[in-house]
Amino acid sequence: MKNKIGEIAGKVYRFLRENGESSLSEITKNVEGSRSKVNMAIGWLAREDNLSFVDKGNGKGIDLK
User: Fold this and answer.
1) Residues spanned by the domain of 52
2) Which of 27, 33, 51, 55 gives a 20 to 30 Å CA spacing to 6?
3) CATH no. for residue 36?
């Protein structure tokens, strides 16, 4: 499972590099993987200090640092 989450983390990273700041919903729609695995992948990238989180009204935007 750890390998799969790492694989999805790479997809999330590439998606954000190509598309810039995005919502969790946008990322989940465009990255292959279940919502829970995408959440874990985002946590992985956040733990490695690769992400920034931006307040967007009633949600958060996620972007690369």
Assistant:
1) 2-64
2) 55
3) 1.10.10.10
